Amino acid sequence: MKSIKTCTNTWIQKFLVINKGENMGVTVYNTKFGQIKIEYDKEAVISIGRSNFNLLDIKKTDNEKNDLTDKVYWQLEEYFDGKREVFDFPFKLKGTDFQIKVWSALCEIPYGKTSTYKEIAEKIGSPKAFRAVGNANNKNKLMIVVPCHRVIGSDGKLVGYAGGLDFKKRLLDLESNIKA
Questions:
Q1: Rounded distance, CA 63 to CA 81, Å?
Q2: Which of 13, 79, 141, 175 could form a disulfide with 84 if both were Cys (CB 3.0 to 4.6 A apart)?
Q3: How far apart are CA 172 and CA 150, in angstroms?
Q4: Residue 153: how many CB atoms within 10 A of its CB?
């Protein structure tokens, strides 16, 4: 398995390995779009997702915010305010070679635009693998940053999103309203 560090409008250029160990943490922030859970290791963010955590249920030591998580929070808030299209905090994703190809292709979908599962499959050289593209999207641990919300069905309908279709619609509406 390989992992990616950055998501830009070009192909992923650096591969890293995630070290699971003591130096990992999780914290939850309240944002304009609801609670967002951020997981991190000593070097980078490893997961961003929606959360239904009750902050009282997380051990105090597991909810320590730090400079990295604060940076992520503020960049997400800027994104939610329509003032940010690119994220520049360090992050890592771990996945199979196929997942890395899919996530790299997702990073090439411009802000305010969408692509279909079929288009992504074609882009990565596996034109019949549109269902596998959907499965790879589902494994994306960095929602918003690796923009799986920008992938829609071939018929233009919103389908599948780990954060929920309502959340996906809100993100797409946000991006299309800013670009309009």
A1: 25
A2: 79
A3: 7
A4: 14
State the first-to-last Cα distance of the chain, in angstroms, to the nearest integer: 40
Can you tell me whether residue 52 is helix, strand or coil? Answer: coil
Q: 61-98 as b/e, with b when 16 or more CB fall inside 10 Å?
A: eebeeeebbeebbebbbebbeeebeebebbbbbbbeee
Q: If you search the block for the tokens 């003032």, which residue do you land on?
A: 83
Residues 160/146, Cβ–Cβ less than 8 Å: no
Instruction: Say if residues 163 and 149 touch (Cβ distance below 8 Å).
Output: yes
Can you tell me the distance from the alpha carbon of 79 to that of 156, in angstroms, rounded to the nearest whole number?
A: 24
What gap in Å lies between CA 10 and CA 118, rounded to an integer? 20
Q: Is 148 a catalytic residue?
A: yes
Six token digits for residue 109: 């979908």
Cα(138)–Cα(57) distance, rounded to whole angstroms? Answer: 26
What is the predicted pLDDT for the residue at 54?
55
Residue type, 95: G
Active-site residue, selected from the candidate residues 26, 45, 107, 148: 148
Task: Look up residue 107 and give its DSSP letter.
Answer: T
Averaged pLDDT, groups of 10, the chain, 180 residues long = 39 33 78 90 91 56 78 95 94 92 95 96 96 95 95 92 90 82
